[in-house]
Every structure is written in C-alpha cells, then in structure tokens.
Amino acid sequence: MQYTNRYHSPLGGITMASNGEALTGLWFDRQKYFGGTLSAENEERDLPIFEQARQWLDIYFRGENPNFTPPLSLHAAPFRLAVWEILKSIPYGHVMTYGDIATIIAKQMRLQRMSAQAVGGAVGHNPVSIIIPCHRVVGSNGSLTGYAGGIEKKVKLLAFEKTDTRHLFVPKNGTAL
To answer: Which of 14, 16, 134, 148 is catalytic?
Structure first.
C-alpha cells in the first residue's frame, strides 16, 4: 500500500508519497511525470515520514539548508539510481551540469563517455523533487533547462538557496537571471 499527503509550499501544492516507512515520491502539482512512482491504490494519511518531510520542506522554504534527509525508498534501473545519488551530492546553493554528471557516471561504469541526454532523462524522472535536488542541474553553457516542475520553479528554488545565478540564463530568450 502507498500513502499520500499534501504540503502547501510558497511555489504551490506538493504531493508526497510513501510506502509507510520512507518517501517514495514528492511532486509539485501538475509537474511532468507527476505521480510516476505512485500506485493506483493509495490512501491519504498522515504518517511520521510525512511529518519529517514537512519539517525538511519548512526549513528549505525558509531559505536554510536542512541538515537531514528524510528516509527515501527509490526503485529504478541502476543507471537512474546512480544519477540520483550524484544529484544528492550536489551541495546546497551550487549547480552541476548534465555533462559533469555524465562524466562521473562514465567513470563509475568504466565507460569512455556517457551521453548528457541520457543523464537528462534520468534527472527528469527523479521521483523526489527538491529533496533530491534535480533543480541544481544546468546545461553546460549555463542554461536552465529540463526541470519537470517548470523553469520558473527551478529559478525560484535556486533563489531560495541563494545560488549565484549570474552565469545562468533561461534558454528561450537568453535572458540572464
């Protein structure tokens, strides 16, 4: 059985999912791949894991770095799991490029190279937004691309972290932040 609960953030509604012990999903309402890991049978319930996630989100949305991570339970292909582990290592307030992640994955897999587009697919399917910080991934040229919650939310999440965005831009019109 899976359980859900809601969180009202400054950026809109968030749905959290759990197996009863750990978070299995966390999505902004109407984001791409919303509920991708959520089974058809689920029940809204308040659980200790949701309280932990709310505490984490409250700290985060105050513009502070939470000093803990709620328990997570992630199930995916090994490639995606490896990418998500790298995402969790990106420091608060910093960004990393898809190419940087591809280089790390290639080394881990003992390959000469890895496609940044393949990494982008794994990043985009991250089921636990914000806590697994896929919003900290940018294009090699500093472009803010590929956030399932939308570029506007990505920009705001980076602002909560006080990330230096002077070298980043929105690709459609090339506008610097």
So the answer is: 134
